[in-house]
Amino acid sequence: MNNLFRNIAIIAHIDHGKTTLLDALLRQANTFRENEQVPERVMDSYDQERERGITIFAKHTSIPYKDVMINIIDTPGHSDFSGEVERVLGMVSSVLLLVDAQDGPMPQTRFVLSKALQMGLCPIVVVNKIDRPHANPSEALNATLDLFIELGATDEQLEFQYCYASALLGYAIADLEDPRENMNPLFDLILSAVPPPKDNPEDPFLMQAMTIDYDQFVGRQATGRILGGKVVKGQKVMWVDRNGKQTLSTITRVEGYRGVKRIEFDEATAGDIASLSGIPDIMLGDTLCDPAHIVTLPPIRIDEPTMSINIMINSGPLAGRDGKNVTFNKIKERLMKEKRSNISLRIEESTSQKEAMTVFGRGELQLGVLLEAMRREGIEMTVSKPQVIIKEIDGQECEPIERVYVETPEAYAGPVIEELSKRKGEMQTLCTNENQITSMEFLIPTRGIMGYRNEFLTVTRGLGILTALFDSFQPWKGAIPKRATGVLISINSGKATAYAIGTLQKRGSLYVSPGDEIYEGMVVGANSRDNDLVVNITRPKQLTNVRASGTDDAVMVIPAKKPALEQAIVLIEDDELIEITPKYIRLRKRHLNEKDRKRGGS
Q: What is the distance between the alpha carbons of residues 444 and 427, in angstroms, rounded to a whole number?
């Protein structure tokens, strides 16, 4: 047992304050200089994390407190990034479960907590945001206990330790009547409730790769908790892969975190979390051990992807105008780089299409993060409609099923139930509380929930909450109605005119603004009816030499509803594509037939 370390992960629903809590702990542990400029949510170092306000990648920090080094891992709260959560839980001895004092446990709380309970961890519950006007910490704590019971927690897990906190104001308290001064009560609770690692520095060296990073200078890096012994730069270790193949390797670099800074260690010892370089092809779950004491640790299981997209070159008429990387080789090179570091995505060359890469992921948010990163690096590409992954189980075709949790005002519950039933949703529970808020739970195919979120927000006037978590693979549920409305397709190339847009606005909602570059076959809007409509959105107003008796009415152009990347991914149909460049997201038809061309000019 190594009493010098405590290893813990922070888990919570999105926006319940994980990263803000870490900010408070880091500041009060004096990990920054007095004059150091420290941004808010310092652990969210990735630009998309700051913009979206969510944690995407699990991150590690170390905080010294009373001669003990507390290793803390910040985990994502969204189920699309479940691969990140599952991996890091294998490195820790306990978890801090954050629960909002006003909202109580939310659907994603169920997801991350169930993972921790399945691994036998005993969580510490932190009821956060108790400073809010409508906070009810006692009710939130009771609801959390109910969730533990519902998820089948053991007697030991049900006896969880807890405290109250306001991460934003920087204090934690053991009892609601205690003075609200600093985070020390939480630090002390971690030291007393989290067991020290049982790993012994005197044992032979042993470590399992729990996360994989890639550095352009030192190559692939394996991160994990050292389960025994010590490791230093230049040490010989035996690498045992998932097939049992043994390869003698040399450690070229030993790194870890002190505060938020990654530094090189002289040595790392049992119980600590370290990153080791020198094994270029190491994969998640592989074992590193002493050559004289060879051990093969059991593999790590990660939830499988549920959907896939094809990524191809941008073959549209406007290709190459604002991207610097437009060839298939550049797209493939970038995706292979992602494959080396992001194990939760499966990336391979397409078997059904030439010069295309297939990316398998957990949801549209995870795929959208990857595509957004690629376009910011100057890559142009075309993306197909996501397809769910079909598995054959006992000779039967099975598809992924989501467990969907819905909260909405009672007045809007009827339309939600009706629409989800059309999409093959099976209601599991329904209840309405004293505030007339209806909570529902459905099992529904992933195909059925794709593209529904925007419609849900419209139906519930923005007051509804919808969360979907992967449940299982079940037999194919049959045909599901496709998109209820058609699209407006441009018949001409040129620039969109205000005059044409003004005449087409009554047909539906438009995705383009006056002056936007348009080409033939481009999807320029959503039709209000269920058919596709070919239109001329570049038509100018015809001028004559006859003077009008009065002034023309000014054209009132409604602002364009340009779809965001994740919206576009689920908006398109099988015969449509998304064209993604550093500056633009365009939708287009794969082919425009001769019949549509003759109908053009509406």
A: 9
